[in-house]
TrEMBL record:
Cellular component annotations (GO), alphabetically ordered: cytoplasmic exosome (RNase complex); nuclear exosome (RNase complex); nucleolus
GO biological process: exonucleolytic trimming to generate mature 3'-end of 5.8S rRNA from tricistronic rRNA transcript (SSU-rRNA, 5.8S rRNA, LSU-rRNA); nuclear mRNA surveillance; nuclear polyadenylation-dependent rRNA catabolic process; rRNA catabolic process; TRAMP-dependent tRNA surveillance pathway; U1 snRNA 3'-end processing; U4 snRNA 3'-end processing; U5 snRNA 3'-end processing
One Pfam assignment: RNase_PH
Species the sequence originates in: Bracon brevicornis
Protein known as: Ribosomal RNA-processing protein 42
Length: 65
């Protein structure tokens, strides 16, 4: 049998949609839809002053929701 549970054959893929810069209040954003799966990715950037004890180092923080 060469089919999946949802009726597609093994070589068929779900429709893919990519939408970029859909959230204007961010520095970058992507919305990715694959079938019924919807993934949102956003990037916001903030430049800060380095700490006094590490003046040549930066900091990177990220959050997953």
């Amino acid at each position: 049998d060469n089919s999946r549970i949802d009726g597609r054959n093994c070589l068929e893929y779900r429709p893919i949609e990519i939408e970029t810069n859909f959230m204007p209040q961010t520095h970058g954003s992507v919305r990715l839809r694959i079938g019924n799966t919807d993934v949102l990715i956003t990037v916001k950037v903030e430049i800060d002053t380095p700490s006094l004890d590490r003046p040549n180092e930066g900091k990177l923080e990220f959050f997953v929701d």
